[in-house]
Write a structure and sequence with these properties.
234 residues; five-stranded mixed β-sheet; alpha+beta; three-stranded antiparallel β-sheet
Length: 234
């Protein structure tokens, strides 16, 4: 049985996270006022710990809008050219998001101990430990709040977001229902279609669901909710 990773550097308090999102203009992307974001963060402050992330629903702030806000060594983040459909990657069956524009993700973990696992192997292992894989937008938001969590040779996948095939049926076998691409966040080497000017930039890309990579863990959480002690399972 695998153990939970210890890679959980402390996140800022919700109110500080709210100010960071406001500075980046995320509230405007989501169609919210700064006051609404601050009010939610203030209500979330009691009971929040250093592993709590303030997130925005992907239908309000999609990955294509969040990725360019990422920064590393003054390089903006980007989505790979062969992932133009990035915003169509939706939560897996079984991941229920709170019915609110803003919510909390608790117990974040980068999942380094699962490096060199394939997404197909990692998903049942995570769910078997009562953990939920991060969505792509949650992973991007985590890096926006805590840029150092994205390290060379220690980057991560966000396999809670998957693209359903046009004829895929909910509840069917993953290989029948889902596109084989699985999203991830890592650091560009500036090769190929990335372009040399993007070397060291944060990158939203994908890997095949059956492939393993020694430098990619699997980010996960303990739950999602709209306030202390409330998760999507409540």
């Amino acid at each position: 049985m695998i153990e939970t990773s210890t890679v959980r550097t402390a996140l800022p308090a919700p109110r500080a996270q709210a100010e960071r999102l406001i500075d980046l203009g995320v509230h405007e992307i989501a169609g919210l006022s700064a006051a609404e974001l601050r009010a939610f963060a203030e209500s979330a402050e009691p009971g929040a710990d250093e592993g709590t992330l303030l997130a925005v629903r992907p239908d309000r702030a999609p990955a294509s809008a969040l990725a360019p806000l990422l920064r590393r060594k003054d390089k903006p983040g980007f989505v790979v050219t062969d992932m133009a459909d990035v915003d169509a990657f939706a939560p897996l069956d079984g991941i229920a998001l709170p019915d609110a524009p803003l919510y909390l993700v608790t117990g974040l973990d980068r999942g380094d101990e699962m490096a060199d696992w394939s997404p197909n192997e990692a998903l049942p292992a995570l769910t078997g430990r009562a953990r939920t894989p991060l969505l792509l937008t949650e992973g991007i938001t985590w890096v926006l709040q805590q840029p150092d969590i994205l390290e060379r040779n220690h980057c991560f996948m966000t396999i809670g977001s998957r693209l359903r095939k046009p004829n895929g049926k909910p509840g069917g076998a993953p290989e029948d229902a889902l596109d084989a691409r699985t999203p991830a966040l890592w650091i560009s080497n500036g090769t190929g279609r990335d372009g040399r000017e993007r070397r060291e930039a944060p990158k939203v890309g994908w890997c095949w669901a059956g492939n393993r990579h020694t430098w990619l863990g699997f980010a996960s959480a303990t739950g999602r909710g709209v306030g202390p002690g409330r998760t999507e399972e409540d």
